[in-house]
C-alpha cells in the first residue's frame, strides 16, 4: 500500500507543480538534497509520529524513490495519453530526484549491510548478501545515468551516445526488481503476508509494463514475454514460501504466547543469567536475562535478524518488563513483531530461571 500511496502522491505533485519544476528544477534538487541529509541525520527516536513514519518507512526504505523510478520506467509505454505526456515531460527531473532520494536508502541501510559485506559477511544471510551486492551494482549504474540526466551535461553529449548510455536504465530497473524481491523474501519467509502483498504490487506493475512494451514494440515481444516468465519464476516460490511461513508463524506465536503467559504467572526466579529465543520480524530473536535477588535486573539482545530501525523502538519493552517484573506488557506500535519477539524470548529465558 505504501508504494501505491507514493505513486499517487508523486503523480499529483508533478501534475500540480510541473511548470515550477521545469522552470526551477535546481531548487527542487537542492530541496531534495536537504531532505535527504535531514533524513539521514534525524534522531532515531523522539520525532512526531508522522515525520518518524515518513523518514523510516517512506524515505529510508526507498519506497518514494522506487515509486519515482517506476514512473520513469513506464513513461514511454503508458497507455493513457495525458498521463504519458506528463511523465515524458518530467521524467528527467523525476529520475534525478529519485536518484538523490536513493542516497537516504543507501546510507540508512548501507552503513550496516555494506560494512558487513566487506568486513564480516558471516553476519549476513544469502538474500541480504545478494541484495547488498545488487545495490552496489545499481549505484555504479545510477551514477552515470543521473549525471547525464542533468540538461547541462546532456546538451554537451552526442545524442546517439546519450541514448545508448540511457539504455543502461533497463538493466537498473531489472536489478531493482530482483533487489526488492530478495529483501522482501526475508520477511515473507517468516510468514508476513503484508510484505507478500507489497511484492505482488511490484510484480503487477512490472508485468503490466512489459505487456505495454510488448504491444508498442513488436520486435521486443519475445524478450518481454521471457522477462514476464522470469518474474513469475522468481515470484511464485516466494509466494508459496510466504503462505507456508504464515502457517508456521501462527503456530509459533501461539506456543510462544503460552510460554509468555506461563512465565508471567510466577515472579520468583533463581539468580543467574539465562538465554531465550523466539521469532522476531526477520528471524530468531535471542536475549540474555539476568536475575538478581530473585528479580529481573537486566535484559540484553544477544542476536537478532531484525533491522536496527525496528529494534530501536522494540527495545522500549525491555524497561517495561523489568519495571513490571513480567512479560505481560504491550507490544510497541510500529515494531510489533520485533517487540513481541523480545517479550517471548524473555519468557523463554525465564522458563529456564524457574527450573
From TrEMBL:
Which Pfam family is one of those matched by this entry? FMN_bind
Q: What is this protein called?
A: FMN-binding domain protein
Coiled coil located at which positions?
none
The residue ranges crossing the membrane are 25-42, 62-81, 93-109, 129-150, 170-189, 195-212, 224-243
Its source organism is Lachnoanaerobaculum saburreum
FMN-binding domain location is 280-353
Gene3D superfamilies associated with the record: 3.90.1010.20
Organism taxonomic ancestry: Bacteria, Bacillati, Bacillota, Clostridia, Lachnospirales
Q: Name one GO cellular component term.
A: membrane
Q: Which UniProt keywords apply?
A: Membrane, Transmembrane, Transmembrane helix
Return the SMART domains for the record: FMN_bind (SM00900)
Q: Which GO terms describe its molecular function?
A: FMN binding
Amino acid at each position: 500500500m505504501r508504494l501505491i500511496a507514493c505513486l499517487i502522491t508523486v503523480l499529483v505533485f508533478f501534475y500540480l507543480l510541473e511548470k515550477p519544476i521545469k522552470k526551477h528544477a535546481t531548487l527542487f534538487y537542492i530541496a531534495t538534497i536537504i531532505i535527504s541529509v535531514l533524513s539521514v541525520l534525524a534522531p532515531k527516536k523522539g520525532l512526531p509520529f508522522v515525520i518518524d513514519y515518513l523518514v523510516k518507512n517512506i524515505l529510508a526504505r526507498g519506497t518514494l524513490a522506487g515509486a519515482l523510478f517506476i514512473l520513469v520506467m513506464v513513461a514511454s509505454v503508458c497507455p493513457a495519453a495525458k498521463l504519458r505526456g506528463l511523465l515524458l515531460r518530467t521524467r528527467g527531473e523525476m529520475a534525478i530526484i529519485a536518484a538523490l532520494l536513493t542516497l537516504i536508502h543507501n546510507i540508512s541501510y548501507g552503513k550496516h549491510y555494506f560494512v558487513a559485506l566487506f568486513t564480516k559477511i558471516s553476519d549476513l544471510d544469502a538474500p541480504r548478501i545478494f541484495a547488498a551486492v545488487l545495490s552496489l551494482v545499481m549505484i555504479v549504474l545510477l551514477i552515470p545515468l543521473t549525471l547525464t540526466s542533468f540538461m547541462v551535461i546532456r546538451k554537451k553529449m552526442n545524442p546517439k551516445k546519450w541514448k545508448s548510455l540511457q539504455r543502461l536504465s533497463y538493466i537498473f530497473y531489472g536489478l531493482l526488481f530482483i533487489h526488492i524481491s530478495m529483501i522482501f523474501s526475508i520477511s515473507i519467509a517468516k510468514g508476513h503476508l503484508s510484505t507478500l502483498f507489497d511484492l505482488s504490487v511490484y510484480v503487477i506493475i512490472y508485468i503490466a509494463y512489459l505487456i505495454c512494451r510488448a504491444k508498442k514494440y513488436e520486435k521486443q515481444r519475445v524478450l518481454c514475454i521471457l522477462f514476464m516468465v522470469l518474474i513469475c519464476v522468481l515470484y511464485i516460490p516466494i509466494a508459496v514460501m510466504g503462505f507456508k511461513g504464515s502457517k508456521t508463524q501462527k503456530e509459533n506465536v501461539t506456543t510462544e504466547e503460552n510460554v509468555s503467559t506461563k512465565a508471567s504467572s510466577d515472579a520468583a526466579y533463581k539468580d543467574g543469567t539465562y538465554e531465550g529465543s523466539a521469532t522476531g520480524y526477520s528471524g530468531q530473536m535471542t536475549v540474555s536475562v539476568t536475575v538478581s535477588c530473585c528479580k529481573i535486573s537486566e535484559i540484553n539482545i544477544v542476536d537478532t535478524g531484525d533491522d536496527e530501525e525496528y529494534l530501536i523502538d522494540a527495545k522500549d519493552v525491555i524497561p517495561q518488563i523489568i519495571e513490571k517484573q513480567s512479560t505481560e506488557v504491550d507490544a510497541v506500535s510500529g515494531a510489533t513483531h520485533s517487540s513481541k519477539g523480545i517479550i517471548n524470548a524473555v519468557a523463554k529465558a525465564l522458563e529456564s530461571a524457574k527450573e
